[in-house]
Amino acid sequence: MIGSLLGLFSSDLAIDLGTANTLIYLKGSGVVCNEPSVVAVQELGGGRRKVVAVGAEAKGMLGRTPGNLSAIRPMKNGVIADFEVTEEMLRILIRKVHNRRALVRPRIIICVPHGITEVEKRAVRESAESAGAREVHMIEEPMAAAIGAGMPITEACASMILDIGGGTTEVAIISLKGIVYSRSLRLGGDSMDEAIQNLLKRRYNMLVGERTSEQIKIAIANVLPSQEPRSMEVKGRDMIQGVPKAVVVNEGEVREALMEPVNQILETVRISLEKTPPELASDIVDRGITMTGGGSLLRNLDRLITQETGLPVVLVDDPISAVVLGSGAVLDHIDLLRDVALH
How far is CA 64 from the centre of its chain? Predict the structure, then answer.
């Protein structure tokens, strides 16, 4: 009973501040927010801006806003690109989670890419503090993803995690609560969307927005040839005549467009395996690679990595939430927080 009462009063949060989506875990309640990291901003003149909408509502405005409104993605490649807008987005989402209670000053754990610079760390800390945090701790995303995927991070055996987010791809080998080796690539789901946009420009002289290219990726992208290839009609703007037009795009074309970002991810995995200490390499042969992050949902990417490396690949049940669930689990184990947090 006391535990559940404490849960009611607990305001501690774990936040996965991602390039594509921001997820928030409330202690005692689980994941309470999963919103696109998009903010609609109104220009007031004189350099002043006002936030009009955040999350799904703002994403619906991407590419559709009138002159004085713009839909901004304040995170780029896993780090803060627009400090002021990120701070406002966090403030709105935190208050939404706490049912608009302005007095709550939560302790917050925020996930950051491995290899984040001191300047980027400071930006994250200051954004969270300005948004109302009492205390800010940071955990590296691969570590949080490994905890969220239920990997035995405290044991003396190696676990390999591949986390493909919207703006970053991270490969890490974890043993005894520490990252033994990690490699970060500033490329992810967004780069795949861009590759699809470029394909349509090159092949069909057609311009499409971010939302359309993401829809194509989700609907028909497949990194391996399939028995019944899919296709879909895509509407956009003709670059030469400037009028709307529609074309049919097939799975094969999309696969060809995605080969560059996918090959970079494969190369990062290969290099990581080459750099793994021999004692830990044998653990990885036994246990394989665990995949998390929204980008890992790309059809058959797990099978392609198995073909290329010869290792088993496990895609976790809820890849998009793995990072925030891992950092949420750390909220409940303060002793673990001391071991895995960045200082």
Answer: 24
d(CA 290, CA 147): 11
Are β-strands 69-72 and 21-26 bridged in parallel, bridged antiparallel, or unpaired? unpaired
Q: Looking at the domain that runs over 2-36+76-143+322-342, which CATH code has it been given?
A: 3.30.420.40
Strands 39-45 and 21-26: unpaired
The sign of the CA dihedral 69, 133, 322, 256 is positive
The domain defined by 191-257 carries CATH number 3.90.640.10: yes
Q: Which homologous superfamily does the CATH classification assign to the domain defined by 154-187+260-315? A: ATPase, nucleotide binding domain (3.30.420.40)
pLDDT digits (tens, 9 = 90+) for 135-176: 999 999 999 999 999 998 888 889 999 999 999 999 999 988
- Domain ranges for the chain, please list them: 2-36+76-143+322-342, 38-72, 154-187+260-315, 191-257
Look at residues 91, 92, 52 and name the one whose alpha carbon lies nearest to residue 72.
Answer: 52
Q: Which residue has the tokens 């790309």?
A: 298
Of 278, 4, 312, 35, residue with least CA distance to 162:
312
Cα distances (angstroms) measured from residue 55 to each of 61, 93, 154, 221, 248: 10, 9, 35, 25, 30
